[in-house]
Amino acid sequence: PARYFMKSIEHGDFKADYFMIDTNAWDAHNIGEPGENPDHNVCSMHNYGGAGTCAANGGMNNIEECKAWFWSSYTVQKQWLEKKLEASDAQWKIVVTHF
Length: 99
Prior knowledge:
Number of strands: 3
Helix content: 10-25%
Structural class: alpha+beta
């Protein structure tokens, strides 16, 4: 549906709200920064260009903007999540992350 969303489900005698958020920000590093592993970095050169270009689907325009784009998106998602959790009347609130 989207990078972050909520789904409420009635499970017999209780309700659960599921909150899905994209936590790829934790795997977004600037190329060459200390600790950066090119094989485990969504912002590495192997994800740049060709079919891996993110601008076509609403992402960053270039690899230099990658880390900031993911962290900006994550900040918006955290604010959304806090509001949704506060408003939820479900007995169970389950946060599912993608990392």
